[in-house]
Design goal:
It is a single chain. The protein has 170 residues and is mainly α. Helix content is 59%, strand content 0%. The protein is built from 8 helices and no strands. It has helices at 5-21, 29-37, 41-47, 59-81, 84-91, 107-118, 137-153, 162-169. α4 (59-81) crosses α6 (107-118) and α7 (137-153) packs antiparallel against α8. The relative contact order is 0.11.
Length: 170
C-alpha cells in the first residue's frame, strides 16, 4: 500500500478526530497516525490485513460457493426426511452435515461467511462454524456436487431418495 500525500493527510486527520472523540474501534487511531506520519504505509496494511484484501473473489468462486451451499441445504433437508433403517444407516455416513470451508486456504470460506452472515442467505447455516480446517473440504464438495447436479438436471433432487443420498455421500 502506498498512500498519496492527500490520502496521508486525510488518514491523519481522521485518526485525530477518532482520538478526540474517544471512539472505540478495532482500529487504533494513534498507531495509524504514527505509521502515516512515519511513511510506514506497509505497516498499516500488515497490521490490518483484513481491511486490505488484495484478492477479491471471482464470479466463478461466488457461483460455486452458492451452488455448494444450495446443495448442502437440499442434502440436509433430504437426510432429515429419512426414517427407520434408512435414517439409521445414514447416521453412519461420513460428514452428513455441512462443515464449512478451510478458513486459512480457501476463498470459499469468506464468500460463505458473507452470504450467510452478512446477506442473510442460506439461513440454515447461520450460527454454525464455517471453518472446516481442512483443505479436503472443497474437493469433496466438488465431487459431491457433480453427482448431485445429475439428479438436479433429471428433476430428482427435491427431496433426494435414500439411494441418491447414498450415492452422493459415498
Amino acid at each position: 500500500m502506498k498512500m498519496t500525500d492527500s490520502e496521508r493527510l486525510i488518514v491523519v486527520m481522521l485518526a485525530e478526530v477518532m482520538q478526540e472523540m474517544k471512539l472505540n474501534s478495532e482500529i487504533d487511531p494513534a498507531l495509524i497516525q504514527r505509521l502515516a506520519y512515519g511513511g510506514d504505509d506497509w505497516a498499516i496494511k500488515r497490521k490490518y490485513t483484513g481491511l486490505f484484501n488484495d484478492q477479491t473473489p471471482t464470479k466463478e468462486q461466488v457461483s460455486e460457493t452458492t451452488d455448494i451451499l444450495w446443495m448442502w441445504g437440499i442434502l440436509e433437508h433430504s437426510l432429515a426426511k429419512l426414517t427407520g433403517d434408512e435414517a439409521n444407516e445414514a447416521k453412519g455416513w461420513r460428514m452428513t452435515q455441512f462443515q464449512g470451508f478451510d478458513g486459512n486456504n480457501d476463498d470459499h470460506y469468506g464468500i460463505a461467511h458473507t452470504l450467510i452472515n452478512e446477506l442473510g442467505e442460506f439461513e440454515d447455516f447461520k450460527n454454525r462454524a464455517l471453518n472446516s480446517h481442512s483443505q479436503a473440504s472443497l474437493p469433496r464438495y466438488r465431487a459431491m456436487y457433480q453427482k448431485f447436479d445429475q439428479y438436479v438436471k433429471s428433476g430428482d433432487a427435491a427431496p433426494l431418495s435414500f439411494d441418491e443420498l447414498k450415492n452422493i455421500f459415498n
